[in-house]
Amino acid sequence: MTLNEQVRQFWEAEICGTNPDLIGQAPMQSHEWYEAIEKHRYEVEPFIHAVAQFTRYHGKKVLEVGVGAGTDHLQWARAGAECYGVDLTDAAVEATRQRLALYGFTSQLQRTDAEHLPFEDATFDMVYSWGVIHHSERPEAIVAEIHRILKPGGEFVGMMYQRPALASWDLWLKHGLLRGKPLRSLRDVIWHHMESIGTKAYTVNELRTMFGAFREFKGEPILTPYDTRHVPGWLKKFIPDSWGFFIALRVTK
Ligand SMILES: C[S@@+](CC[C@H](N)C(=O)[O-])C[C@H]1O[C@@H](n2cnc3c(N)ncnc32)[C@H](O)[C@@H]1O
């Protein structure tokens, strides 16, 4: 089985951010279910709005790669963007389609592997992808596709995982040190234990190289609740963003 087929099966089994332990027991695809997903998402990742800046893209042609449950996709629609979305799974595409319909919006959604995007060159004003590209077998292929389908001057905005981060060391502690395998690398524990199999995480400089075909690159680490879950409350404000698991990306073609 290819890696992306394993990735697909993992995310088909449960759409990202919809675990009932996190969002409660509302019936799937009901209005309450979508509201609970949205409430939880922006409580734990409130910085998404500052990174995405949804309202700046009113009237723009926006593609979201890896829509998941469609929470951010709804924000693009609310902001008045002309919305397109893809995901590797039927579950995500259907949940997002249903969600937009429930709120009176539409988007051109399709299931596809983003390593091959079914769009003409220079089609989009912006491409957005939050926490997706590092799950794919060949992230570089997705980045090359994003570059191809963006118009000149178009932007990519998104998030990818940072390897030298507290959340990575937390995983290493659990699956390396405490299992008597202190020599396990951060790469290895992230590959095997961070969500779907094959997950990768990078340094800002590695991402700068991956996005080397673009004209401008900005990558800024963000400290997340996944980094600080074992840190006492009073200590959190002293931890710098540079130790965070997320790298917010704003890149221009
Ligand atoms: C961690 S979830 C993030 C979903 C959403 N962006 C969010 O923030 O909630 C990862 C998503 O990426 C999708 N995905 C992984 N590899 C992909 C690929 N090669 N092409 C398209 N989607 C992919 C998965 O199906 C899953 O829905």
Brief summary of the model shown:
By secondary structure, the chain is of the alpha/beta class. Helix content is 38%, strand content 19%. The protein has one domain: Vaccinia Virus protein VP39 (Rossmann fold, 3-Layer(aba) Sandwich).
Question: Could you characterize the architecture of this molecule?
Answer:
- The chain is of the alpha/beta class.
- It has one domain: Vaccinia Virus protein VP39 (Rossmann fold), CATH 3.40.50.
- It contains eleven helices and seven strands.
- It has helices at 3-13, 20-23, 31-44, 48-52, 71-78, 90-102, 139-149, 166-175, 186-193, 204-210, 233-236, and strands at 61-65, 82-87, 108-111, 124-130, 150-161, 216-222, 246-252.
- The chain has a seven-stranded mixed sheet, with helices on both faces.
- α8 (166-175) crosses α9.
- The longest helix is centred in the first third of the chain and has 14 residues, at 31-44.
- 42% of the residues are buried.
- The model has no long low-confidence stretch (mean pLDDT 97).
- The structure holds S-adenosylmethionine.
- S-adenosylmethionine binds at residues 4, 7, 11, 16-17, 65-66, 68, 86-89, 92, 113-115, 130-132, 135-136.
- Residues 4, 7, 11, 16-17, 65-66, 68, 86-89, 92, 113-115, 130-132, 135-136 line the site of S-adenosylmethionine.
